[in-house]
Fold:
Amino acid sequence: MERLPGFRDFYPEPVPHKDVWSADARQFIFGKWRETARRYGFREYDGPPLESLELFTTKSGEEIVGQLYNFTDKGDRAIALRPEMTPTLARMVAAHERAYKKPIKWFALPQLFRYERQQKGRLREHFQFNADIFGESDAAADAELIALLIDTLRSFCLTAEDFVIRLSSRNAWQEFYERGTQNRERPTEGEYHFYQVIDKLERTPPEETERKLVALGFSLVDVNRFIEAGEPTLELKAMLDNLAARGLRDFVKVDYRVIRGLAYYTGPVFEAFDRKGEFRAIAGGGRYDNLVKLVSGGKVNLPALGFGLGDVVLLELLKARGLLPQFDGGVDVFVLIEDETLRPASLKLIQDLRTAGRVVEYSLTPAKPDKQFKRAQELKAARTVMVGANSTVRVRNLDTRQEKIGLAAEVVGLLD
Ligand code: HAM
Structure:
């Protein structure tokens, strides 16, 4: 039986094949995501991987809806695996926002599913670090979120030479669109289609873009001129100053080629890319001040902003820059049992060491001493411990080869 295309198997290191993924690397990434989110005061939440189809169809925009894994369940409900976390979060916040002081700052590490063509950096399942803020419309919140994104990437030892946050604004494009359509009829959905053309600018041949723009009453020359000028809006200026005060200015640049494909964004938007432009977007996000209102049927209205940072491109980048650590089982102690009459005393010692928080391994069944020692070395255990006569133990540091002898009751002290 083969696994489905675009899905991944995660194995403990060392991974047995180039087509499988490292469970240790995944855990390492999740650890950094959680650590950084907590440093910024974000609290963890979670939601269900299955949602009613309706939650996504009107909120997210055509592209993601075309990639939905959806089906009818046994109760005749139209449902979908979540392709992104934001609509679920908007639903959760709308339901219970009164119970929380504002601004609400939450994060999650969901697994997401998109039925898209499998390619480099894009799979049918991925994990995302999502961080979102609700209840604050000041640009200070946008800057705080971008600082969190920068520090998350920096926690993996990536620098301003490795990545850049490309900052843009739906407001700037909205003004551009309104200027361009002044005094003429605006087709319904015209603005959304215009955003879609800008979103695909870098991935579409110029002639095709020009044709689409002309159909909407614009020209590629004007669009390119606007992008090249890159004049920051007031909100973008405030964000840049805020980030400069933190010493993070080198990590961001204004780039109006970014507009974001998802339909719900309203204000500043951004994407993180590797500087060399070898990989697809590492992260993306922005303001979506109308989504809570939309999802709650007008009952709750809260400004909101957030980003999603995927594990697939991040891992590719960390591998390419040699920034993944060597992973091993982290075994502190391998207990050698050379005399089977001492197995009960050894089990007691193993139990004591584990209770003290040490990672302990040993041979489950009788084995020759050299085989046990070899296994300790394979596991890269820091020390071996052997129980001797009269409740003594012999502790050996496998790096320095130094030995200590003491009482079994004091074994934890002998490890330091
Ligand atoms: P998104 O741009 O669709 O945004 O996804 C964010 C990141 O997730 C991307 O930059 C990429 O690294 C990763 N990603 C997306 N699709 C795939 C895929 N098929 N395979 C591997 N990685 C992928 C959102 O999802 C928004 N909901 C983010 C957000 C949160 N906006 C506000 N709050």
User: Anything to note?
Assistant: The first strand starts at residue 10 and ends at 11. The chain has 15 helices and 19 strands. The radius of gyration is 27 Å.
